[in-house]
Amino acid sequence: MPNVDSARSPQAEDPAIKDAKFFAAIGYLSVLCFVPLFLKKDNRFAQFHGRQALVLFILEVAAGIIKAVPILGDLVFTAAFVIFGIFSLIGILKVLTGECWEMPVIYDIAERITF
To answer: Where are the beta strands (DSSP E) in the chain?
Structure first.
């Protein structure tokens, strides 16, 4: 019989990840992206997810501004709302499983952010 512990990811056992999960997860809730960025500055896991959440938040704000454009703005905002909502949900799920998922396009932008 295989050992149950060997099936787990080594990241899932890392105490730094366990310590940062709550902060990283709430970071994906819009403006709360600043919570892991400022409260867990020394935690790489929280910073990874906080930066991605910050990029999502900035894009959400941009989509809100674009909504001012008649007709096209509503379509763009609705599509962005759905897409960014799905990305945020996946981000929260990845945080809870202790994974660092590189979101397409979002990660490339987030990687350039330094504090």
So the answer is: none
Q: What is the pLDDT of residues 14-44, one digit of tens each?
A: 888 999 999 999 999 999 999 999 999 999 9
Inter-CA distances, 28 with 25, 72, 102, Å: 6, 27, 14
CA-closest candidate to residue 91, choices 40, 42, 21, 19: 21
Residue 46 is given by DSSP the state H
Contact criterion met (CB below 8 Å) for 55 and 113: yes
Band of residue 90 on the pLDDT scale cut at 50, 70, 90: very high
